[in-house]
Amino acid sequence: MQPNIFKKGPTAVQVEKGKTYAWCTCGLSETNPFCDGHHKTIEGFPFKSLKFTAEEDAEVWLCNCKHTKNPPFCDGNHKHLSSI
Ligand code: FES
């Protein structure tokens, strides 16, 4: 099963050092790129959020297409979605 493509491009997000975030992996969250728990509403759904802790105060680019090879960050793979 492939994740839903929420958007073919990342979102810039300001993160705070030491704070933990939950990145949406299924692509169905209404608060993308973050998880809103939508995956819990579908029985047998294989996706769950990916939690990560910011190592520094920074602006990061979080993947919205859910096909990055470096989750939760955009790696540019959204440019090749037509071939996925
Ligand atoms: S938005 Fe997913 S790789 Fe860029």
Word description of this protein:
By secondary structure, the protein is an all-beta fold. The chain is built from no helices and four strands. The mean pLDDT is 95. The strands form two sheets. Strands 1-4 form a two-stranded antiparallel sheet. A two-stranded antiparallel ribbon has the order 2-3. It has one domain. 21% of the residues are buried. The chain has strands at 11-15, 20-23, 50-53, 58-62. The structure holds FE2/S2 (inorganic) cluster (FES).
Largest sheet: 2 strands, antiparallel
Beta content comes to: 15-25%
Give average pLDDT, whole number.
95
Ligand identities = FE2/S2 (inorganic) cluster
The coarse overall form would be globular
Q: Rg to the nearest angstrom?
A: 13 Å
Number of domains: 1
Strand arrangement across the biggest beta sheet: 1-4
Helix percentage range? under 10%
Q: Ends: how far apart?
A: 12 Å
Overall SS class: mainly beta
- Poorly predicted sequence stretches spanning 5 or more consecutive residues: none
What is the number of beta strands? Answer: 4
Query: What pattern of helices and strands is seen along the backbone?
Result: EEEE
| Tally of DSSP helical segments | 0
Q: What's the layout of helices and strands?
A:
Elements: E1 11-15, E2 20-23, E3 50-53, E4 58-62
Antiparallel strand pairs: 1-4, 2-3
The structure holds FE2/S2 (inorganic) cluster (FES).
What's the quick description here?
The chain is mainly beta. It has strands at residues 11-15, 20-23, 50-53, 58-62.
